[in-house]
Amino acid sequence: MDSFANAPKSLGEVRSDRSKDSADWTPRDVLIAMLREIDSGTLEVSTLVCVFKIKSSDDPRVGFRMASPDMFEAMGTLELGKDRMLFESRG
């Protein structure tokens, strides 16, 4: 698939939209939803920082991927994102 612009919403995404609970969708659902927004032109992204925890029962590890003009913009984006997560999760 070259474009996700017309990709349908997953059941998890619909469930999360209704419940406003991030536990209702998978990391893959999140990525596809964001690709849909980028490919359809509704979201114009200049910097992207993805942080993830790898499933492992004996050694949980955290990793990241980033697309950014430089590390400082990526770190600023990450910090602002953390602030927004805290503010929006307070209800």
Topology of this protein?
Blueprint: H1 11-19, H2 27-40, E1 48-54, E2 61-67, H3 71-89
Shape: globular
Q: Determine the number of helices (DSSP H or I, runs of at least 4 residues).
A: 3
The helix content, as a percent range, equals 40-55%
How many structurally independent domains?
2
Share of residues in strands: 15-25%
- Ends distance: 37 Å
The biggest beta sheet reads:
2 strands, antiparallel
The helix/strand series, from N terminus to C terminus, equals HHEEH
Strand order of the largest sheet: 1-2
Q: Give the total of beta strands.
A: 2
Summing up helix and strand content along with how strands pair, one would put the structural category as alpha+beta
Contiguous runs where pLDDT drops below 50 for at least 5 residues: none
Radius of gyration: 15 Å
Describe it.
The protein has 91 residues and is of the alpha+beta class. It folds into two domains: 45 residues, no CATH class; 45 residues. Helices cover 46% and strands 15% of the residues. The chain is built from three helices and two strands. The chain has a two-stranded antiparallel ribbon. The longest helix is centred in the C-terminal third of the chain and has 19 residues.
In short:
This protein is α+β, with helices and mostly antiparallel strands. The protein has three helices and two strands, in the order H-H-E-E-H. It is 46% helix and 15% strand.
List keywords for this structure.
single chain; 91 residues; alpha+beta; 2 domains; two-stranded antiparallel sheet; 3 helices; 2 strands; 46% helix; globular
